[in-house]
Every structure is written in structure tokens, then in C-alpha cells.
Batch of 2 targets.
Target 1
Amino acid sequence: MRPQKLEELLETIFTERECGRDDAASILAHTNERHAEGKCTADFAVLAFEGLVSLSLDRVSLTQAGEVRAAFVVRRHRLAERLYTDLLDLAPDQIEQQACELEHVLSAEATDSVCALLGHPALCPHGKKIPRGACCDLSEIAHPVVPLSQLADGARARIAFLASRTPGRVSRLLPFGIAPGSELRLRQRAPAFVIEVGETTLALEASVAREVFVQPL
Amino acid sequence: MEAADRGLQPDTVILVGNPNVGKSALFGALTGTYATVSNYPGTTVAVTRGRMRSGLSTLAVLDTPGTSSLASTSEDEAVTRDILRAEKNAVVVQVLDAKNLRRGLLLTAELAQAGVPLALALNMSDEARERGYSIDAPLLSCLLGVPIAQTIAVQREGMQQLREAIAHAQPVRPFVLKGASVTERLVDVDTLLALVMTQSNAGRASPWAVRLDRLTTHRFLGLPILAAVLYVCYEFVGVLGAKLGVDFLENSVFGKLLVPLLSRALAWLLPSGAVQAFLIGPAGLVTGRYGLFSMGLAYGIAIVLPIVASFFLAFSVLEDSGYLPRLAVMADRGLRVIGLNGKAVLPMVLGLGCGTMATMTSRILETKKERVLVTLLLAVGVPCSAQLAVIFAMLAGVSAGAALWFVAVMTGVMILVGLLAAQLIPGRSSEFVLELPPLRLPHPGNVVIKTVSRIEWYLREALPLFLVGTFLLWVLDRTGGLLVLEHAAAPLVVGLLDLPRETAGSFILGFLRRDYAAAGLFAHYAPFARAGLMTRAMEIEVVVALTTVTLFIPCIASFLVIWKERGAAFALGVLAFIFPLAFGTGALVNVLMRRFY
């Protein structure tokens, strides 16, 4: 089996489990066509032979080794989605297509640097969990990332990443200097959030403040 | 001259920059004439043009609205992009706030990608020095490959340097600031900043300014400040402008001096009755005399001008002080209920001065839905200063209870219309993201120039309308048309609203300007109020009439601006909506008050 097809199957087993399904039929039905053409139940036997899944009747579950492999593919996919959404502002169908390609080619080191660039995001643009990497744990010890809306009045913080589900919102904040790496000070939280970035003072509504993720300093 | 290498001699200079970097002041310093200098993005809505000398030739200078990014979605920021695209033979001068270089350079990066010949003006360089920033301008100029001038526009410093920079404008060096995404450009900018700028922590903004700044947006303490600001404005506009100013101009200058003088002079010069009536007017039925001079000019100048002038003066002071965006922060929650956000408070407040101007200012809002909502609310219920004066005068004649009825009904209708319209009008509202410029002591010169230019605008728009309106009335009065119209309107006014027949005339005036109508009502009821003879029934009449008139379309001028800004279909739709709304509300208030008041 081609490695792409194998990863595609593992990824689907992982995501189907998130939806509470583990039967072979629904996994095959949801597997990406482009990279897993000619998929059939026999493929699971190959995975089982490689020690990545265990089968019982028509149920499929990941072994420990399979779990690691699958989580890594899902991690790369969702980080790629974040990358394309937050920084490049691509159209949704473009994002999906690009993310599907990138998930098979990113090396472990490259994945961690993308993760760091985005500020170790916890969720993908669709609100699903991004499996954590070693880099996330390290950063959390040093600087936990919280939404701006949870920062205390008067606190200083460094912007880690901007995570918006509404396209265009993030790109609106960037010209004000609200971008990953910038330092800010939260002046007040009500009646609106007021932040100072350099010499710019900006008022934001709470829903925008919830989408700016920062590391308190 | 490098610009000449590209073949054509440039003939235009375009000023571009973030909001509040002193662009308009620089425009004034370059051209010698002032544009509106403002703290809020949006007041330079119409692009200002001027001319400057450069060597032997003169160049056209265009002042664009303050813009954060060329990729912005708000109508007035998009103007900048369109101008850059349209003016092929132009030099761009980007004005930067020297103490906020990072943001300025982000815009420079966008201009670099556009490939336009560029010169930079590092403005407010004195403030930057005070705050402890030191900028190596020659190095920055060398790195970017564009000429840079350090300026203090309000003091007209560095202008010679800027003229030279304009003459040597160049596109930004290739490969500098050429990041493809905003994030990449930010990295570029930060690298550049590390090379050219150092900050010592010695200077910060003065402590009282910082403290006051905090208070103005404080969730509790901000409210008394807001109340105090409103109170001072009311005292200034309502008492100084509307009472003392109007009293002086109307009674002393026009009533006692000009009108009698002119009528005597005319009686002697032109014995013809019709011409006399045309200029001075016969003894009138509803609003006194319909003479072009005695009513048109007297009303336009004696009654409206002092109010409008004092309002614009107060508004300019507020605007230049930087308080208005803070007001937007305080009002955000409230406006959210009716589908708007804090930004909408600016056109609304301006609407208390002149609805026509405010309708044009709705361009600063980001989505079409918000612009439509604000336009509608301005048309429905925000009374302009001319009308406010008459409303105050009339409410002074009735009991506090009746006045409260009026205020409650108007507030209720506004909220109800806002709530409904927010649900019915398709599209989305934008998020509230608003820059708060530093609080500053307004520069008296700028305030005066700005106020004068607004008053000029108002007179140009409104005064001809007063004269046309008065002329129409004169024609109607002479031909008997007024009586016919009064007859036609009578069933509506008398039957539906229970008002005396004579007030029908003022409703017809209301189609020209709603304050005309209110003034007509005032003339009808004022004698009773002055004599203390107002009955309960009359108080109800006053509230019903005022409510109906206030809900009308503000005036023909504002209707035309709605047409121009939002299209014919919308303008006619507003008309079709407001007419039944005004009369329906009036009728309802009549029924309710007769039962419960």
C-alpha cells in the first residue's frame, strides 16, 4: 500500500472515532478519494499486519503505534488548515485541498515550526482538537496561551496567534499591528476591550478579543 | 529629476496615511489652504484637492481619507485605493506618525508592492522625540530607497525638505518590504525598525492625559464624564446658540432693524403690492410673513444659523479633542441592540447638527447593512439642531409630564424601528474595532477653520432651500393653492390627529423641512404658552403634532442625499415607510394620551 493511502486510512479512523464511529464501512465511506483510490476492506488487513490497527468483526481500532501515526497525520492536516486560514486567508475549498497535500509531506521538524509560528493553536478552524506535539508541551510550561478575553486588566502579553472562524476578521486586525509576536497591554475589559499595541490604542468588542490568543508576560 | 526618467512629468501629489497622522494639516501646510483637520477617520470623506508650487510648475494635491490598509472594506478607505489606481501620473506622499512608525511602515509595504513613486513625511517628529523615540531617517531613506522628510505639520516645519522629497520621489527599492502576506510584511517591518529606531524609556505621554484617557472609557466613571460633556454641549448650543444668539439676531437685528427698514425703503421705492409681498411678505397666516427676505433669509440666518454654528463649533472641539471615539466605546453596548456598533454613534451625533451631513458620514461604517440602518434612523428620528431648538422651545411651554411623553415616544419608536430593521435588513453587521487617537487639546486655528467650512457647507446646502421653500409658499399663498392644500390635508390632520385645522398649513411646510413645520406649530401655540393658557387638550395636541412632525423626512436636502448615497429605490422606500409611520404614531399617541395623560 502507498504511504499516502495508509495515512489517509489512519486519519479517517482517527476522525471517525471523534464522531463516535468505528465500523469499517463508515471509515471507507469517509476516506478521501484522491489519495486512497481503490480502497476496500482488505486494506484494514494490511494495516493490521503492519501493527497499526486491531480488528474485531467489522470494528477497527488503532493500536498504540497506529495511534501515534494517525495523530501525527491529523495534527499536520489541522495545523495546515490553521496556517492557510489565519495567515493566507485562502478560500475554504482551497484550504481543504492544500491541507490534504501538506499532511503527507511535512517533516516532524517542519510541523513543529509551523505549530510554533501559529503559537501552538489548540483547535483547527472547524473547532476540532489539534493533537499536541512535544513543542506544545514545552511552550505551555514557559508561556501558557490564553484568549485575550481572559487576560487581567492592565496585564501585558505577547500575541501568540489569531484564530478567527470568520474569514477576513484577522486580516482586519493586522494593519493595526495586532499580529503574532506583537506585545500588547490590556487597558480595560468593559464596556469594550481596550488594548495598547505600541503607540496605537484600539477598542475591540468581546467577540474579537476571544479570537486573539496571547501569552501573558 | 528621477521622476522624469519614467517619461512623464508627474502632475499630481497624493497624500496617503493612517488615520490621525496629521495628513490634513500637512495638506494645509503644503497647499496654503486648509482641508478639514480631523481626529476621526471619515471626516475627510470627500477627497480634498489643492495646488502646490514645485519649482516653476504647480502640482495638484489630493488628500485621501485616513486608511489602515489598502485592502480595507469600508467605503471611505476604498477611496484611497481607487485614487491610486486612477491617478497614473502621480507621486504618492505617505504621511507617517513618527511615534507609531511600525503601523506606518506596514502601509508603506503595501505602497511598495503597488510600485508607486513614493516620498515619506515623518510627521509629529516632535511628539516622537518627547516620547523618547529616535529615528535614523537618513538610514531608513537609504534602506528603502525613497526620500524622507521630517515634519511637524501643525507648525509648518520641514516643508522645504518635503518639497524636495516630492521632487525626488522613487518607488521603494526592490526586495525591501516585499513580503507576500501581512505577517511576512510585519516581520520585514520589525527587522527594519530594529535597524533605524531606538526608544529610551525616558519619555511617555503626560500623566494627566493618560489618567483622563482611562477615565473617559471607564465602565462606570466614563458615564458621568459623558453626561458632563453632553451637558456642556447642551448649554453651549441650546442656551448660548439657540436662546441668546437667536434672540439677538431675530428680534434685534431682523425684527427691529432690517425688516422694518427694508419695508419702508421698499414702500417708497416700489409701490407695487405684489413685489413688496414677494420680498417682505403680507401679514402671514401660519408662520408670519412669506416674504423672501422676512421669512426665507430671516429664518435661515436668524434662527438656524446661530444654532448650527454653535453646534458645529462644539462638534469640531469634540472631534479634535479625540473624545468622539471614546464616546463610541461607551455607546457600543447600547447600539448593539439595534444591529449597530459603537462606530455608528458618530453619524448619529452629527445628525443632531445636520442630518444631511450625517447621512454622508455614514460612509465610515463598514457594512452596507449598517450604512442602511444609520441612514434610516437618521431619517426617522434624529432631530437636527434647527429642529431641536424649536422642539425645546415648544416643550418649554407644556408640563414636564407632556414633555416626558414626547421623549418616551420618540425613544420607543427609534428603538422599535432599529430592532425591526436590524432583523429585516439583510447582510451582516461588522465587529467593533476602533482606533482611539490620543486625547489632545484642540488647536484653536484648526477648530475655527473646520467650523467655518462646515457652516459654509450648511449655508450653501440649506439657505437656497429656505429661499425656494419660501418662494413656493408665496406662490401658493398668492394663487390660493395653500388653502386648497390645507383643505386636502385637513381630514388627515383634523380627523386622524385631532389637531386644529390651522395647523394643517404647517404640515405642508413640513415636506420642505420638518423644522419649518415645527416652527409653524410653535407660532400657533406660543401665544397660549406665553399667557399660561395651555389646556390639557392643547398639551396633547402639542405632543401629537411634535411627534408626527419629528418622525417626518428631515428635509428635501437630506432626502436628496439619501437618494444619492443609497439609491432611488431606498430613498422612495424610506419615504413610503416614514409617511404612515409618522401619522400612525401621531394617531396612536393621540389615543393613548387622551386615555392615560
Note: Chain A has a mean pLDDT of 84.
Target 2
Amino acid sequence: MEFLSYLISGLSLGSVYAIIALGYTMVYGIAKMLNFAHGDVIMVGGYVSYIAMARAGLPGWLSVIIAMAVCTLLGVVIEGLAYRPLRSATSLAVLITAIGVSYFLQNAALLIWGANFKTYPSLISGTLKLSLGEDRQLSIPYVAMLTVVVCILIMVGLTLFTSKTKMGKAMRACSEDKGAAQLMGINVNKTISVTFAIGSALAAVAGVLLCSSFPTLKPTTGSMPGIKAFTAAVFGGIGSIPGAFLGGLLLGIIESFAKAYISTQLANTIVFAVLIVVLLVRPAGLLGKYVPEKV
Amino acid sequence: MSSLKKSKLSASAVRDYFSFPLVTAAFFIITFMSSHDMLNKRMQGLLVPVCCYIVMALSLNLTVGIMGELSLGHAGFMSLGAFTGVVVSQSLIDSVPNDILRLVIAIVAGALIAAVGGFLIGLPVLRLRGDYLAIVTLAFGEIIMDIVNCLIVGHDKNGLHIIFNFKGEKTVADLNLAENGTAIIKGAQGAVGTKTIATFTAGFLIIMLTLFLVLSFIRSRTGRAVLAIRDNRIAAESMGVNVMKYKMIAFVLSTTLAGMAGALYGLNFNMISADKFNFNTSILVLVFVVLGGLGNMLGSIIAATVLYILPEALRGLADYRMLMYAIVLILVMLATNNPKVRNLFVKILPKRKSKEGAQ
């Protein structure tokens, strides 16, 4: 029974990672940049929905929508101000700028909301208790169920979006070859902006779900989940949407089991060790495309 | 192309070797200032850490600028050096009473352990490329931090006692130290009660040694092979350059230097925990390297000094200082990398044209 409950908490954590990783992977796929500020957008999403719920007393669903709107705007503004001028710069320059944006968001949050952590009111509370035979009971928090369902919906939605809609196809074209896409009449800048908008909206959702499961909210809340989700994206094969989903889920489950059965202190170590082994066996990640070099 | 390269090389050589007199001059000026009470206490406290971060920046520049691979876990090697240095220095406190000698032994030990760590980590890491290599170095940085966090080390007359606190239930008492034994590293608390023996002079000497090693490495046969691999791996490989071997040499040299910096850093504070060497520290050093210019050693020195002191200098702005730091960082990156701004610079300073193009 313990096994099942660890599996469920792993799935729920993994779903949050997966949602964040989807944002990472989309931005990476199209802009070929590691957006280190992504984790901090999660934090902003968490704070905005916290303010909406706890201070303004709005209902949970409305606070999620507000958080998504704010983060979408934030993502587009960040992209326009900080990343767009560097479109032709080296990837390292863009990486450092992303780090600068990450510092900026963290410190701005510190100034606006203070260093003390806030206790996040969960979106939905309560647990579903299933009794399986005598004195064996499985309790599943509703938040965990919601997280997994939302994650699957987002994943299906994104897959449909990228394969069926015009904008989705433009995104895939841009990630293959920006120059050729532009020649075919695709507005590359607009496509990249939309990608950032979607990624940031997903980050807001992830922020709300993350804080609902782990209710401490502080300016650095987003950093570690951000790094882990980035790991998950690489794990599954960066640039691939199903890869991010799979990578996120696996990472969450491994982390949950490592905490339960091996060592709490070494949970991160085990997660990262698995990543290293996977990359050595499959250098492009689990579902990544291996592109041989042409000489 | 060859004539252009030649002129660039000599220009960069002049710039590189100019670092030696510059660092020496800076050292004497600062020593003079501090002996005449012209530095306040806070600035005095910054001297050794600045030296350590300069060495870190030079060392990371070797990996990122010369070898051309992004490393996001360099602080891990600093951590290896720091805790090795602290353990060695604290356990030799009775047998080697001379502080200077003990500091040298500790730094050598820190460098050696970091070199071994670099070799072991390099074996898997250097097989990967690009962003995948970057994420694996990040992973190793976090792994080193976690493992050091679990470490409990003590020393008594029977020698060193080391236990790993993987389950979180062990404490210093489990070391079973004899009487007069001391605990050196107390798990997540880190190293406590370290006798601080790091000095600014040692920091200066380490910078000079690092500069010498890095600059002679770049101009050696091995260094040229590493540069060839960076510029075109496939061409280098087809000319018979053993990519793995040369990358490994450069990487191990880089981690060795980071270990030295770490040992000095660890011995500058009477308490230090593994969390100090987290991902953010790796990023901090990377920022020094990128802002100083990839492959530009003088640039690394200047960037490390200015950017390490900047948050302190901005202390007057209190809570706004890190915000200012972030804004400065973004603006500098935009100003130096945006083609429009760069072209503007090229127009104003026509002489710099070839240099800007070459970088």
C-alpha cells in the first residue's frame, strides 16, 4: 500500500515537472535557448494566484486564470525586451541574459512580496480515501488527481495544437529551420512570442499546482523545480513534447521512490545519477531525435 | 585568414601577458592600502574571496572559452577543494604547526582531489556535447553538493573518521572520536571551527600560478590541440588529434585549479557549508567568464573583481542591489551582443573592427 501511495505522490510531482518541462522544451525547440528564467515565472504565477485567492478572496479557478494572464504577459515582455535583441547572438550570451532575467524576477519578488514565505491555500483540499480490504486504506489527495489530469490535458492539447493548427505548424517549421520558415511567409518573431506566451501560461498553471501540493511560497520557490524540470526535458529528449511529458513523470516517480526507499538526503543525487546514465546510453534523451553530424 | 589570425594571436598574447604586471601592481597597491588602514573591514574581508573567484573564473574560462564546452557545475570542484583543504588543514594542525606550510599542503591536497574528481566526472561528461554536456555538469555539481552535505568527518589521535549520513540519522557522536578529537565537518552544517589560515598573499600567488599555468597551456602543443578541437572538432579529429584525451587534459587542469581556489576559500572562513557551492555559485562564475570575454584571461580577472565587489559597492542601495545587479547584467549583455549596438561601436572605434569580428 505504501508503494502505491509513493507512486501517486511521484505521479503528482512528476506531472508538475512535466508541465514545467513542456514550457522549457517548447521554448528550447523553437528559440534554441535555455530559458533559465522559466522557473521564476512559475514563482510569479504562484504569487499572483496567492494574492488573488488569499488577499482578494477570489475563487480558485479565477485566480488560476489571472495568474496565467499575468505570466503570459510577463513571458511575452521578457522575450521582447531581453531575448529578441539577442536573436543572432551566441547561445551563451542568451543564457547569461536569461540568468539575469531570473535574478531580476527573484529580486523583484523579494522586494514586492518580502522574504518571508507565504503559506499557499491549496486549490482544492481533502483526500479521496479508498479502502482496499481490511485496514488497508489508500488516500489520494484531490490535488494529486487534479495535477495528473491537468497535465494529461495539457499534453494532449499541446500535441494537437502543434500538429493541427496553423500556428502549431509554424512553430514546428521555425524549430526546424528559421530561415526557411521565414521564406515561406511565417512571421518568426510572432511565432516565438506565441511560444513564450504558451510556455509562460503553462508555468503559471505549474506554479499553482506546485504550491497546492507544497504550500510554501517564497521568491526562490521556482528555482529547484525549474532545474529539475529542465533535467526532465533533457531526460526525455529536449525539443520533444512527449519526451518532456515522459521525462517529467519518470523524474517525479524516481524522486518519490528515492525519498521513500533509499535516502531523503540523496533523492536529488539519485535523480541526477539516473539522468547521467540515461544520457550516456541515449545521448539525445529517451525520445529525442539523434541527429548525426554531416561533414 | 592566416595573416589575420597571426595578428590576432600576437594582440591576444600582449593582452594575456599584460595580466601579470597588472595583477602584481594591483596586489602591491592593495597591500599598501590595507597596511595603511585605507580599506574598511568589509573590503578587507573581500580580498581572499575575490582572489578565489578570480582563479575560479580563469579555470572556468579554460573549460568554456578554450575548450568550448559549457560547464554549469564548476562550483562542485571548488567544493571538493574546499572541504579537502579544510579536512587536511584541521587534521594536520598539531603535526604541522606552521600555518604557511599547512596552507600549501591543504591547497595541494584540495587540487589533487579536485583533479581526481575532474577525471572521474570527465570520463562520462566529455563524451557528450553541447547542452547535454552542460546539464550533466549541472547534475554532477548538485550530486557533489548533496554528498558533501551527508559527510561527517572528525579527527583524533587514531586518524580520520569519516561517515556518511545518508539516512539523516547519524550525528557527530557516531564518529566515536577519542578524547581531544574534533569534528571537522558536521554534515549539513558543513565545516565548523576551521582555523582560518588563508591570506591575501596566498591568494595573489595562486592567481599568478593559475595565470602562468593557463597561459602556458594555451600556447603549448596540447593547448593548440584543444583550440583546434574547439574550432572544428571533425577537422581536428581527422588530423589525428585524440579529442577525448585533449579535452580530458584541459578539463582536469581546469578542475585542479578550481580545487586550489576552493581550498583557499574554505580556509578563509571558520565555518562553511556545502550549500555555498551550489548551482548559483557555478552560474556566478560563468557570468564572470562570459562578461570578461570567452578565452580572454585578463577579461576574466577584471570581470570577477568588478562583479564580485559590485554587490558590495551597491550595498547603499540596500534591498535594491541585487535588482540593480540583474539589470546591469541584462543591459551589458544586450549592449555587447546586439548587432545594432555593436555596429555602432564599430563605427565609433574603427580600429577595434578586426578585434570585434574575431571574437
Note: The beta strands of chain A are 118-119, 127-131, 137-141, 216-217.
